[in-house]
Amino acid sequence: MNGSLVPANTKRATLILGMFKLFPDVVIGAVGTVITGILLFTLSNIKASTTWLIISLIPMLVCIFLIWPIPNYHNFMGAIQSIIGFYNGRRKYIWRGWCVKYELEKDKQ
User: Which of 3, 31, 32, 87 gives 20 to 30 Å between its CA and that of 93?
Assistant: First the structure.
């Protein structure tokens, strides 16, 4: 990489509208919207009540919650995956830091 650092904001150029990945973000949003549309179309003929309207909107609201961008993570889905990975994975992390040269105590002998 010629000894240079890549700025963190260059990753946004690969995202749709600077916020969403094609897969899974756009796909999840589209699936939630389609399911909500089908439910609205189907349940509107059965019962026209506020309860059925709220039930119909739940898939889209859940999908919007999952793909909504938040700071320090790509979105809530990424944050949830990190939390699950922390509690299910290794909890002891080895820190070596940024060093030009790494030497172990046993290597110095």
Answer: 3
Query: Rounded to an integer, what distance in angstroms lies between the CA atom of residue 37 and that of residue 43?
Result: 10
Query: pLDDT tens-digit profile of 54-99?
Result: 889 999 999 999 999 888 778 899 889 888 988 898 777 666 666 6
Please spell the DSSP secondary structure of the chain, one letter per residue.
Answer: -TT-PPPGGGGGGGSBTTTB-IIIIIHHHHHHHHHHHHHHHHHHHH--SHHHHHHHHHHHHHHHHHH--BTTBSSHHHHHHHHHHHHHS--------S-SS---TTT--
Token match 């019962």: residue? 47
Q: Which residues face 4 on adjacent strands?
A: none
The C-alpha atoms of residue 84 and residue 78 are separated, in whole angstroms, by: 10
Q: What is the pTM of this model?
A: 0.64
> Would you say 64 and 57 are in contact if contact means Cβ atoms under 8 Å apart?
no
